[in-house]
Amino acid sequence: MLRLAYLFERFPSFGQTFCYREVAELRRQGADVSVFSIRRPTDEPAQDWDADIAANVCYLPDEAELVKEVDRRIQLAQLPDAAVRAIKEWDRRTDFLRLYQAAYIGLRLQENGIHRLHAHFAGMAARTGYWIKKFFGIEFSMTAHANDIFAPRDFEITLTNLFDAASLIVTVSDFAVSQLQEKFPKNAAKFHRVYNGVDVKQFTRARFAREIPLIISVGRLIEKKGFSDLVAACSQLQREFCCEIIGEGPLEEPLRAQIRESELADRVRLIGPMKQREIVARFAEANVFVLPCVMTRDGDMDNLPTVILEAMAAGLPVVSTPVAGIPEMIEAGVNGELVPCGDVAQLAKAIDSFLVDRNRAQEFGRRGRELAAKKFSLTESVNQLRELQ
């Protein structure tokens, strides 16, 4: 039986349903998974999480209590010498809490006989995993996603340090594997692609029954999602439609202003965050899913947006852009259309093609659902993770 611990910066997180699904599926398959979370989710809408999973997350104490507890363990000589030396030498340098978190979690892993740790995102959780290995010799692996590898922040423990220390590095697209192998050739053999998985049985098929067709999109209201291009494309459509953008984020007010200035207030709605079951219900009412992703000035971009997989699982045609791993999900002319980033005219044309021809939209959606079930099966993705571990 596979036995390991998962470490997250925040779990379960409203915007990271793929993390929750992975843990839930591992447990369903019989793996013994302990979950640690550095922070508690706060000010987030509630999802319909499994009560047993959510109730058994080990949350770390806040800074003052954490430091006090680790200092107490040092006084009792309960920490490895490597941990004591590093904590004293690092003192209060940037990111010092990662060392204290590593000491706190590592002791619990050691006490429970857990010898493998997996961290999601090449960020706070992975940097904590790095120190756990240094202090306790516990092997750690990680899943790298998007901004954490395409536009990483500067820390003394760099991506190179993390990749050197990790026993396994998973990422979610062939595109990302290729990019990482080229940039970090020393660790090329450690990189493996495991797609985010989806269970199509959890998604109601789109009905394509609305008199006025519905365009739907989901995501954080941030630049790389391309929502400003979606609003601009909506202003070029010459037929009746409704457009709903589900999500929240820092660009909410600029997008609302763009909608007003484009005189689209009666057609385009920013409706805030929704629970997963509510999103599933909206997908079933829609005619097309649109996510016109772009690369930002600092190189950040989406990698394999889970919402596209979810739209495919719902049997919706998808309009997006050929950014990172998106072409691994969307085959133009088969289950959706890919348009050049920032090309609003082509975006509007692609959207309109699914609004005007419902039979075409249904056929593309059917192919997308079949692809989601075959290529992006949650069960298969977790099987691959288990084999790699």
Spatial ordering of strands, largest sheet: 3-2-1-4-5-6-7
Strand fraction: 15-25%
Shape: elongated
Helicity range: 40-55%
The average pLDDT score comes to: 95
Task: Please state the structural category.
Answer: alpha/beta
Radius of gyration: 22 Å
Q: Give the N-to-C terminal Cα separation.
A: 11 Å
* Unreliable stretches: none
How many helices?
16
Largest sheet: 7 strands, parallel
SSE string, helix = H, strand = E? Answer: EHEHEHHHEHEHHEHEEHEHEHEHEEHHH
Query: How many beta-strand elements?
Result: 13
Please supply descriptive tags for the structure shown above.
elongated, 6-stranded parallel beta sheet, 389 residues, 7-stranded parallel beta sheet, alpha/beta, 43% helix, 16 helices
Describe the fold and architecture.
With 389 residues, the protein is α/β, with parallel strands linked by helices. The chain is built from 16 helices and 13 strands. The protein has a seven-stranded parallel sheet, sandwiched between helices. It has a six-stranded parallel sheet with strand order 10-9-8-11-12-13, sandwiched between helices. Helix 9 links the parallel strand 6 (168-171) and strand 7 (191-193). Helix 3 crosses helix 5, helix 5 crosses helix 6 and helix 13 (306-313) packs across helix 15 (358-375). The radius of gyration is 22 Å and the shape is elongated.
